[in-house]
Amino acid sequence: MIDGYRRALDKYNSLGRQRDGRSEIKLSDQRGTIVCSQGIKICPYNELFTNNSLPELYSVLSDSNSQKHFTFFIDGPFSLVTNRNSLTDKSIEIINSNDFLTAIKQFLDECKDRDEVFKELIKRLNNEYFDIERTKQAKYLSELKDNFSKRDRFRINNKLFVAPQNGEEHWVGALYTLLGHIVEENNPFKKFWIRPLNFSARGIDSIGSVANEVNSISEPLAAKNLKAIEYKFQFNSNDIYNHPLDITDYIVAWTIDSSKTDKITDEFNLFGTVSEIPNISKSLSFKIRDIQSQDGDTYHNEIIVVCLKELIENTFNTKITPV
Length: 323
Known about the structure:
alpha/beta, three-stranded mixed beta sheet
């Protein structure tokens, strides 16, 4: 059922509104996609349209603003949980099955082809959605450009660089990769600049070579010569690390803080001990050693945690200038 938003507000005057409890039944509860069992309303299911098996054209129907314009009932012999206000796992499995989604797509396609109102609604909602998203993106880009002059900055070889901000872990990795190529061989901090070979959006952020120049050792791409690198904007010892400690070799963060605890834990039931590196300030780098699980398993890898901000200042004799 497609209904005008204004008409619904004006005509359904017995239903409750936001901040206006006219009845126990709210207008918003009667909109969007609703699953029914044998004709009885059970629960909303607007996430149906976010399923990748349905065309992108219909994904806008999952948006809360779009739901104000239609009601879509899905009725069937669905099994319910004990209190009868939601579906069982078996029913959810049916709704997410390929056969069911194919039938939903066929129904929506037929409605779009034969019903001019539904066709125009889909077109309008998608146009409005993309207009809003374009406006958001343009506003974000404008704000990003305007704020660049307010960022901390530093210079190396008369070239200007800006510091990463929270959420820019990939810029931490890019800076680490870029600047690692210009560190001189006799620099005392050279050992902290291993060479990343890739960036990944899945799992650990980078794989790096233990050699700063890949051709300087035999078998440079052999697994034994590769290290797992994770990038962070900030790494605090009291935070729970989001990757297994036993598969991590380096953590490179713009800032680090090991003062709160000597124990590092991860999301996988593992923990390790913070250990200082001889002749190196703990604020620049430290190790995570003696990694083990809560159940007593032990692991022999050590993780080097590096503060990129201090590493840059020490390696290139420069200063990060706050603004």
